Amino acid sequence: MSKLDTSAELVKLGQLLGIPSTELNFLEGLPLPALIKVRALTTDKLFNDGRKLFQKLASAAKLLPAGVTATIGEKIFGAMLCARIASEMPYQRAVELADKMTIPFLANVTLELDPRRVKDIIQNMPIARLRAVATELLAQKHYIVMGGFVGFMLPAQLKVILQDVSTEEALLHIGFFIENKHQLSDIIRLLPTERLHKLIGYLQMHDELWPEALTLMLHVEDELKRKLGDIAAELGGTVLDDLVGTVQRLDLWPDALPLFACMSAATQFKLINTPLLSDVTPLTSVLVNTDRFSLWATLLPLIEYMSITQRQRLTNIVVEQSADFQQRMIAAVVQHQLWRPALDVVALMPEAAQQHFAGYFKPLLAAKPEQLTAWKPLVEERKLGHLFA
């Protein structure tokens, strides 16, 4: 479960309830699907209260000319009631009424809508009207609301609206709050390459937005993770340092390691060799999270990009860990045949620790004699043959 996704969900739930998300921190331990369900049930409760009345008002709205009904809605009912009524009327009538209302008022109505209930209204709204409302929401920085509506827009609508999201801050915040994260790949593909360079470059001056950027990178397809990673590496400066610093500060290694594994070899090398990852504290965090979330198959190949100093520090940390930790690491090595990085680590251990680790290896290797041809030459290259004699 991504801590970033949980954070976004708590912010959305807090907005729905009208309280700061920090008051919901006690929910952080819930699985993400449970949090999403809590918000959906809360929304349903709010919208279902008084629903019969709203259905009657929606029916009554058919009796008057659209202009009169729109005026009554805007001047007398207000945004919240209009949102509830719109959710109960045929989308054709809702679109007709929306055309008679002012853009600022429609933006306020949008704040009170449940996008799930007005999908047809969204998809049939004239693009000029939709665009005007989106522009108003952007001006007021209602990024959570926009993130909720993106998932219900048609591709053609989304392409036009994206053109109006002119600031990188807005783009990152909307991406952070998008309901259907699989859409992020489609959105990134709609952006020209120069916009992606601008987006990543923006983070050099606004590193507080790295959590939003990481959320975007985590949820796009692997080819796009590689592309965005390469752009970050090409920009140089402090981009990669800030990325790694954010991961360490927010303890996002369970999210970041699989992300790093998708990047090109050149970018992985630059990431692994950022100054922060030469320090013992972040290296320890990396190892602890790798073990906790069973990410050995992800981390071990990255060891090949480490400097000898980094490897030695990482080796020292491994030696200091519990026997259970070490056994899980060795089991992953054998399971995934990650002999080269594992033996590079063993080669840097004191003799006593080497003997200790060989004791873990031997019973696992005995159960998998077919791996002999893979590991034995690597053992001999590192002059570790005596450990397995």
How would you sum up this structure, described in words?
With 389 residues, the chain is mostly helical. It has helices spanning 3-17, 32-48, 51-60, 66-77, 79-86, 91-98, 103-111, 119-124, 127-139, 143-150, 155-164, 168-177, 183-190, 193-202, 210-219, 222-235, 239-249, 253-261, 265-272, 280-292, 296-299, 308-320, 323-336, 339-347, 351-366, 372-381.
Q: Any idea what the radius of gyration is?
A: 27 Å
- Got a strand count? 0
Which stretches of 5+ consecutive residues score pLDDT under 50? none
Strand content: under 5%
Report mean pLDDT, rounded to a whole number. 90
Helix content: over 70%
Shape: elongated
Largest sheet: none
- How far apart lie the N and C ends? 43 Å
Order of helices and strands: HHHHHHHHHHHHHHHHHHHHHHHHHH
Which structural class matches the secondary elements?
Answer: mainly alpha
- How many alpha or pi helices? 26
Concise overview:
The chain has 389 residues and is mainly α. It is built from 26 helices and no strands.
Features:
389 residues; mainly alpha; 26 helices; 0% strand
Task: Describe the SSE topology.
Elements: H1 3-17, H2 32-48, H3 51-60, H4 66-77, H5 79-86, H6 91-98, H7 103-111, H8 119-124, H9 127-139, H10 143-150, H11 155-164, H12 168-177, H13 183-190, H14 193-202, H15 210-219, H16 222-235, H17 239-249, H18 253-261, H19 265-272, H20 280-292, H21 296-299, H22 308-320, H23 323-336, H24 339-347, H25 351-366, H26 372-381
